[in-house]
Write a structure and sequence with these properties.
The complex is a heterodimer of chains A (135) and B (159). Helices cover 78% and strands 0% of the residues of chain A. Chain A is built from six helices and no strands. Chain A has helices spanning 2-16, 19-38, 45-65, 69-85, 91-112, 125-134. Chain B is mostly helical and 159 residues long. Chain B has helices at 2-33, 35-45, 59-79, 84-103, 107-123, 131-142, 148-157. Chain B is elongated and about 75 Å long. Classes of the chains: A mainly alpha (135), B mainly alpha (159). Chains A and B meet through helix 1, helix 2, helix 3, helix 5 and helix 6 of A and helix 2, helix 4, helix 6 and helix 7 of B.
Chain lengths: 135, 159
């Protein structure tokens, strides 16, 4: 699926390249997600919201790192908006889960980029792709 | 009557021509307007990426697979010079090739492949292109360590 390949490419650019290249790749992926949304392309709404959340969080982290705090705050709001669109029992549960997601994402990204110890493999990347294709 | 037949024949010929022309025309359009969209499509054709399930294969066999995939992706890049996604895949493909050459004891080829990989990834703005880092990264990707966004996504979707 194109979306998976773009997600993989943009994540690696964000995680391994400089902020300019990372930003370009993430915005390209974001624009692709917008097209899926605007053109009503068949795609799970839940997964689409989650893809938006993760991309906004990556952009938030990138802009925070380079000191664009106002832009970063905008991306954080966008991430929270899409996160709220996922069904939650109540607002507290949504906030707690969002905090947990943000922390977990931050530490696992650091591990992936080689800045921390790696945990055991969870599942093969190809298996993920096969699962995504079957959706 | 003759006029109606002529129009029908022309319509049928037009449909046939359109049927055959539509695919190359749409591919040309995507290549020229959205090179990375084409790159994503092209990678999908070879099962998403050059990464292969090579753990249980002898290095010489894995080398053939990776080398063949890399050659295919390079061919596509020839038609899409501006696709950064294909450039990234080619860079990582060279790193994988370098690892396999190293396993086979071909030190010179391994160094050469690593240099090609470093060159591609440096052009993409990658910060750390040391052989140790690239080798470790590719090993992480191929050994099944999930990319963080994928892991978090699966966890959140399953809640």
């Amino acid at each position: 699926m194109y979306a998976d390949n773009l997600a993989h490419y943009s994540f690696l650019q964000y995680n391994q390249a400089g902020p300019d290249q990372g930003r370009t790749a993430l915005l390209q992926y974001l624009s692709f997600l917008q097209r899926i949304k605007n053109e009503y392309i068949r795609y799970s709404a839940r997964i689409l919201h989650m893809d938006f959340v993760l991309t906004y969080l990556h952009l938030y982290r990138l802009e925070s790192t380079v000191g664009n705090s106002a832009v970063a705050a905008g991306y954080m709001n966008d991430a929270q908006r899409d996160w709220s669109a996922l069904t939650w029992k109540n607002e507290d549960a949504a906030i707690a889960a969002f905090k947990k997601l943000n922390q977990s994402l931050s530490s696992s990204e650091a591990r992936f980029s080689g800045k921390g110890a790696l945990s055991a493999p969870a599942a093969h990347r190809k298996t993920d792709k096969a699962r995504a294709k079957a959706r | 009557m003759k006029k109606a037949i002529a129009i029908s024949v022309c319509a049928l010929l037009g449909l046939a021509a359109g049927y055959f022309a539509a695919q190359p025309a749409s591919m040309w359009y995507i290549q020229s307007t959205e090179p990375d969209m084409f790159g994503a499509f092209a990678l999908d054709v070879i099962d998403s990426s050059i990464a292969c399930n090579c753990e249980n294969k002898p290095p010489s066999e894995a080398l053939k697979i990776v080398s063949g995939d890399l050659s295919t992706v390079r061919g596509w890049r020839g038609q899409n010079r501006s696709s950064l996604m294909l450039a990234q895949e080619i860079g990582l493909g060279y790193v994988r090739l370098s690892q396999l050459e190293q396993k086979l004891g071909n030190g010179a080829e391994a160094d050469n492949d690593m240099k090609h990989g470093q060159h591609e990834l440096a052009a993409l703005g990658w910060k750390d292109i040391s052989p140790a880092h690239l080798t470790a990264l590719v090993k992480r990707m191929d050994s099944g360590y999930q990319e963080p966004y994928q892991k978090e996504k699966n966890a959140a979707i399953a809640h």
